[in-house]
């Protein structure tokens, strides 16, 4: 190969075209009546004359190489006919022609488009073809290829075996024929009625169908001719009934979150404080302790995995005002609809880690989420970010089957690293890259979960290094905020360098803020990292008229600086947005950084993983090239 390259670009072109011709004849075997023609002297007029004399209606000069032309007819049959063979032979014999290569036809396919019949997944379940969030071929006017990529994970053999997912909700119809075989009775409990049977309470309007629908998304049985298929259709599902009582208590929440943490691997929660755009609330003392115990002691010390729906308050709310979704201990999941846009009810915030799918905007009756429903029924109309969290729980179950040693933090890192932008888009919030090149969006987090990518990386995953916490700095002086002026404060930090709790690679960042305002809903808050990544900590909430409580030591959280170096100057900007002038007082801003001292994957696993892929692809290409070159050289020798 090197010997040929030394002869210059013309020899390379001849060799490459001989190579293409040889490959085409041995693989596809489809010869076209298009010809690459090289003339001794390459004027266009002469080329046109040669083409006409040999029966070609059209000719164009190629912009690469010297004296190269494309001879072709107006109407192109798919395969070579006798006439094109004669044309080729006569061109070879023409004294003006230096070289001729008849073009070989070969296949190319649009990436992203998949025909359901060409995906090697055979399911007998009647709603399977309606489950566009599993395999999107364009059903219900959706965007082909925009899905969870579960087909790849399933084809690799991962279906959730050995994993238990708890649905913390209004109960589960565990007698449903599409759920019964995967129901884990041992891990289930009813904290609303204090008994081991979390069956939904009957209402005429089927109000308590929420948990059953979520359960079907996770682990509906496959190939039983009933409803659809769960994301992790061999995973076990447990029911924790805890939402169906006149009021919630700290004891019920804490008991639910800490129920059987050595049996339950993943807890899925599609609930939280009221999404009315004016509530600021989160877990109470017992629930916080239960969650802390879960991530530290659950699953034999690897940590319980808490998946949380980000909220359905739409543009009127901000999920950083929800202390469950914005907790470092949870994986907050937003949703997109089947064409990649945000649903109108989606809340945005900097604590969202990734996205899955739900319904919205589309009038097509099949654009909702297909799943199980109460009393043995099925539905196409499950919706909200309620539908998004169970899908994520199912994807995480596939990853846990691939690697049962994953910790709760490993799962977050995998979500950051393998989630994809795909075709998600929003009119307001654009995609950006943080200081280490990770792509994120204020609405979608790091993108849509990719089950295939996650299980492949999970198999090779090494547990992330120990986590450290550092109080990076604090502003305790009182500062006034006026409508006409933006308050800008800075904290310069070494991130506890030189101490045992030094943080070099970021995971979560918290801005603990105490602030009061004449109208809390008009407050806007942004924070910029030393590496230039801007996080929107708080957006305007037009329905929030609070003028008394404000935010009291509220931990606004961002995941957007994941992997960055926290050392340097952080900038906090606070201003009012609204038509009526407002005033406020900032009393505290404390910066908390959480992460590792050694690189979890930015310098190690990513490069190792990419190197393996590159090496394997390089070896495959080299083998193919060697074989193709050998064929082409033999062909050239035989012709000579």
From TrEMBL:
Keywords assigned: Cleavage on pair of basic residues, Coiled coil, Disulfide bond, Glycoprotein, Hydrolase, Protease, Secreted, Serine protease, Signal, Zymogen
Enzyme class: hydrolase
Ranges in coiled-coil conformation: 611-638
Main localization category: secreted
GO CC term, one of those recorded: extracellular region
Ranges annotated as spanning the membrane: none
PROSITE patterns: P_HOMO_B, SUBTILASE, SUBTILASE_ASP, SUBTILASE_HIS, SUBTILASE_SER
GO molecular function: serine-type endopeptidase activity
Compartment(s) where it occurs, according to its Swiss-Prot or TrEMBL record: Secreted
UniProt EC number: 3.4.21.94
Catalytic residue positions: 169 (charge relay system), 210 (charge relay system), 386 (charge relay system)
Pfam families, per database record: P_proprotein (PF01483), Peptidase_S8 (PF00082), S8_pro-domain (PF16470)
Boundaries of every P/Homo B domain copy: 463-599
Swiss-Prot/TrEMBL GO biological process terms: peptide hormone processing
Catalytic activity: Release of protein hormones and neuropeptides from their precursors, generally by hydrolysis of -Lys-Arg-|- bonds
Signal sequence annotation: 1-24
Family note: Belongs to the peptidase S8 family. Furin subfamily.
Function text: Serine endopeptidase which is involved in the processing of hormone and other protein precursors at sites comprised of pairs of basic amino acid residues. Responsible for the release of glucagon from proglucagon in pancreatic A cells.
Annotated protein name in UniProt: Neuroendocrine convertase 2
Organism: Coilia grayii
Source lineage: Eukaryota, Metazoa, Chordata, Craniata, Vertebrata
């Amino acid at each position: 190969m090197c010997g040929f390259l030394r002869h210059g670009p013309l020899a390379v072109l001849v060799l490459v075209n001989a190579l293409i011709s040889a490959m085409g004849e041995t693989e596809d075997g489809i010869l076209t009546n298009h010809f690459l023609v090289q003339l001794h002297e390459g004027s266009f007029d002469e080329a046109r004359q040669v083409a006409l004399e040999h029966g070609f209606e059209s000719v164009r000069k190629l912009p690469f190489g010297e004296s190269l032309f494309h001879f072709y007819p107006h109407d192109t049959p798919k395969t070579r006919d006798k006439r094109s063979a004669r044309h080729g032979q006569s061109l070879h014999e023409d004294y003006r022609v230096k070289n001729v290569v008849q073009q070989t036809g070969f296949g190319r396919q649009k990436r992203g488009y998949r025909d359901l019949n060409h995906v090697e997944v055979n399911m007998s379940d009647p709603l399977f073809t309606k489950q566009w969030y599993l395999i999107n071929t364009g059903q219900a006017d959706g965007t082909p290829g925009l899905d969870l990529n579960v087909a790849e994970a399933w084809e690799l053999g991962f279906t959730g075996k050995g994993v238990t997912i708890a649905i913390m909700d209004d109960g589960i119809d565990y007698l449903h024929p599409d759920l019964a075989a995967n129901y884990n009775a041992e891990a289930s409990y009813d904290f609303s009625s204090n008994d081991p049977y979390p069956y939904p309470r009957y209402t005429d309007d089927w109000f308590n169908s929420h948990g059953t629908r979520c359960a079907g998304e996770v682990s509906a049985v496959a190939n039983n001719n009933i409803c659809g298929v769960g994301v992790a259709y061999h995973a076990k599902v447990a029911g924790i009934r805890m939402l169906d009582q006149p009021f919630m208590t700290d004891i019920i929440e804490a008991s639910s979150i800490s129920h059987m943490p050595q049996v339950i691997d993943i807890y899925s929660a599609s609930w939280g404080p009221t999404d009315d755009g004016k509530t600021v609330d989160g877990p109470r003392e017992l629930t916080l302790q239960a969650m802390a115990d879960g991530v530290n002691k659950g699953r034999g010390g690897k940590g319980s995995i808490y998946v949380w729906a980000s909220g359905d308050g739409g543009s009127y709310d901000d999920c950083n005002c929800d202390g469950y979704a914005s907790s470092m201990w949870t994986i907050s999941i937003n949703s997109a609809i089947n064409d990649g846009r945000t649903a109108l009810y989606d809340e945005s915030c900097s604590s969202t880690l990734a996205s899955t799918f739900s319904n919205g905007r589309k009038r097509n009756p099949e654009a909702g989420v297909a799943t199980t429903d109460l009393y043995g029924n099925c539905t196409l109309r499950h919706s909200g970010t309620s539908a998004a969290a169970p899908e994520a729980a199912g994807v995480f179950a596939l990853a846990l089957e691939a690697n049962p040693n994953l910790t709760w933090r490993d799962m977050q890192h995998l979500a950051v690293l393998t989630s994809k932008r795909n075709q998600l888009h929003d009119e307001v919030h654009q995609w950006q890259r943080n200081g280490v090149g990770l792509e994120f969006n204020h609405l979608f987090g790091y993108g849509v979960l990719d089950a295939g990518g996650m299980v492949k990386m999970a198999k090779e995953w090494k547990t992330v290094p120990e986590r450290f916490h550092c109080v990076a700095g604090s502003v305790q002086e009182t500062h006034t905020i006026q409508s006409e002026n933006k308050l800008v404060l800075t904290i310069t930090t070494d991130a506890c360098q030189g101490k045992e709790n030094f943080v070099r690679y970021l995971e979560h960042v918290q801005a603990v803020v105490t602030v009061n305002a004449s109208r809390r809903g008009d407050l806007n808050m942004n924070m910029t990292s030393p590496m230039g990544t801007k996080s929107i900590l708080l957006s305007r909430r037009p329905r929030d008229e609070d003028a008394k409580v404000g935010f009291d030591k509220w931990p606004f959280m961002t995941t957007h600086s994941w992997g960055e170096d926290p050392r340097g100057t952080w900038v906090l900007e606070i201003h009012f947005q609204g038509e009526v002038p407002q005033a406020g007082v900032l009393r505290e801003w404390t910066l908390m950084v959480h992460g590792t001292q050694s690189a979890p994957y930015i310098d190690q696993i990513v490069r190792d993983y990419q190197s393996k892929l590159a090496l394997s692809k390089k070896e495959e290409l080299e083998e193919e090239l060697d074989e193709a070159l050998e064929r082409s050289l033999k062909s050239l020798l035989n012709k000579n």
